[in-house]
Fold this sequence. Notes:
This protein is α+β, with helices and mostly antiparallel strands. The protein folds into two domains: about 1-60, no CATH class; about 65-140, no CATH class. The chain has helices spanning about 15-25, 70-75, 80-90, 95-115, 120-130; strands spanning about 30-40, 50-60. It has a two-stranded antiparallel ribbon. The protein is flat and about 75 Å long. The termini are far apart. One of its GO terms (biological process) is mitochondrial translation.
Amino acid sequence: MDHSGTLVTLPFDLRIPFARYIARNGVVNIKRFDIACVYRDKKILGAHPKELYECVLDIVTSSPEDLVPDAEVLLAMNHARLLTCYLTSAGISDERQADLIAILKEIRSERNHFVESLQLSDHAATALCEFLNFDGPVNKL
């Protein structure tokens, strides 16, 4: 109970309160990224609940055809730590991860050589390489 006598609970997940907020306030466009603690019951009755971290990414839009918010997320999520987390979850050992990341870096430089081998004009080849190697907000693309 809180100070006014209202029953309160620890958050089980991060989506239900967010969905409630969206429904009550009529929000039609929002992107949200949140990392926070959530709690689960332990099997032992009366013990403190288990504390976990949950990460959520929510996109609310009034137009399902608009893919720009999704594209912005895809561009923003391109991060090396996310790659290592994915490789770990796929069961790839740390030693093999280093080898795989090195191969992926080589592929990136080979991609630039491949573009140059297409015999495009200097301007077109430069523009294509800049696009493929772009790192920044979508509105700068």
